[in-house]
Design a protein that fits this description.
Radius of gyration: 23 Å
Shape: globular
Largest sheet: 18 strands, antiparallel, barrel
Number of helices: 2
Order of helices and strands: HEEEEEEEEEEEEEHEEEEEEE
Strand content: over 45%
Number of domains: 1
CATH class: Mainly Beta
Length: 448
């Protein structure tokens, strides 16, 4: 079997090297994108919209560093060694345009089981849905409805490379500390009014929830609304201003947060296939939570403890912003983005200042090969609700799919994640998966 997979991989690479690159006609240029408006890449591969495609796969997986919500016999965090398992799944991706409507869809589901996994960490199903429906109400007004949701068994993996923009990530659990089932959903409604060829207005509202199976981890509810205005100063340059209000609360913990932020932005089209955008602003963050307060020595000697817990209401002004560069080629796309934002936390951290940066590249070459890679960094610091050390996280991964025959493809992927918090220094997780996939269409479908 190993010999067959090795020969198949060499054949795939050899054929891909001599296959002519396919291209599509240039899409009409509609000006630079606005970072604070919905810009999901659902239904795309290699920066191109694709027709609806079905796929299924079966893979063997090897994981190390799985961390269930438990302690070992020494009272330390229980990090597991190598775990071997089997995963089977399927999904559908694509887009469709009508006279006044457009639908973009990415759905994937999988089931996985590990051999001899006594803790059951990672066992079960993973689901992910990204669905966007846009409808043109009139010549100048467009409405959009966006739903993102799913369930993840793992603290990293598929959610680190889902096709979402920075504006979509507030309700997606990307920095979980434990391998514990997490259920999440974000629903959004938006309206854009193109008042003139230069001036446009946007309005949106969304609500999200995150539910973690372990009773030891905190759940999250939230809602938000924003209004923005954009003015195209030239054919390729646009300036914008955005006001956003957000609310986070925590059903398993005391406290909530109210955030009001204002951003100004500038976007420029660097040719027909490249966009650059930057937003800068400030957020007024009001938090209510519980903090530990040290007791005077005289009182501590009487009550027998050195601290007490009290409520804390804080109001701080924090910088926010984001920057993004995208470049589309005939058969590939690259994106670089980063930003400062206010995050609802990860089940241990509550409202936090979040710093994120990522780079991604996807390639769809010829009729036999697709490739994708992603790398990023994130940092969270409490915004006032907790007294807790910062979180630092790093991740990187890549995958390749190549056509073997007919609709059968070989796929392989590797993912790595490291995070550092006070109690767990430099915790590493690794995943290797390899198997067979089946997809409709002439070219293999990149399923990540």
């Amino acid at each position: 079997m190993n010999r067959f997979m090795g020969l198949a991989g060499l054949a795939c690479l050899g054929i891909a090297a001599v296959s002519p690159a396919y291209g599509q006609s240039d899409e009409p240029y509609e000006g630079p994108s606005i970072l604070t408006r919905d810009s999901t890449t659902a239904g795309q591969r290699g920066g191109k919209l694709i027709d609806f495609r079905l796929w299924g796969d079966i893979t063997g997986v090897v994981d190390s560093g799985l961390t269930p919500v438990s302690l070992n016999s020494s009272g330390a965090v229980n990090t597991q060694g190598l775990q071997y398992g089997l995963s089977a799944g399927g999904g559908v991706s694509g887009s469709r345009n009508w006279e006044a409507d457009q639908v973009n869809l990415d759905y994937r589901g999988s089931w996985q089981q590990y051999s001899g996994n006594g803790s059951n960490a990672g066992d079960g199903t993973d689901q992910f849905l990204d669905l966007l429906w846009s409808h043109r109400l009139s010549r100048h007004v467009q409405m959009s409805v966006h739903e993102t949701g799913g369930v993840s068994q793992m603290s990293f993996g598929q959610l680190s490379y889902v096709p979402l923009s920075n504006a979509d990530l507030v309700g997606v659990p990307l920095n979980e500390l434990y391998d514990n089932p997490v259920y999440f959903s974000t629903s959004s409604v938006g309206l854009q009014w193109q008042k003139s060829t230069r001036l446009s207005f946007g309005f949106s509202g969304d609500a999200f929830l995150v539910r973690r199976k372990s009773q030891l981890l905190v759940n999250t509810n939230g809602y938000a609304g924003d209004a923005n205005v954009a003015y195209r100063i030239t054919r390729r340059q646009t300036i914008s201003a955005t006001y956003t209000y957000e609310h986070f609360d925590y059903p398993r913990s005391y406290g909530y947060s109210d955030i009001q932020q204002v951003e100004t932005g500038w976007s420029i089209g660097l040719g027909r296939r490249s966009d650059f955008g930057v937003n800068v602003g400030a957020a007024n963050v009001q938090t209510l939570g519980l903090i530990q307060v040290a007791l005077p020595p005289e009182i501590a000697a009487i009550v027998g403890q050195g601290y007490t817990v009290t409520t804390s209401k804080r109001n701080v002004i924090l910088p926010v912003g984001q920057v993004q560069l995208t470049r589309k080629f005939s058969t590939s796309a690259i994106s670089v983005n980063g930003g400062l934002a206010i995050s609802p936390g990860d089940g241990v951290f509550l409202t936090s200042r979040s710093l994120n940066g990522a780079v991604g590249y996807s390639y769809v070459g010829g009729r036999r090969l697709t490739f994708q890679t992603t790398a990023g960094y994130s940092r969270m610091v409490s915004a006032g609700q907790q007294t807790i050390a910062p979180y630092d996280g790093y991740y990187a991964g890549g995958g390749v799919t190549c056509k073997l025959f007919n609709n059968a493809n070989m796929e392989a992927r590797y993912d790595w994640r490291r995070y550092n918090v006070a109690a767990v220094a430099n915790k590493d997780e690794n995943r290797v998966s390899i198997g067979l996939a089946f997809s409709t269409g002439e070219r293999p479908l990149a399923i990540w």
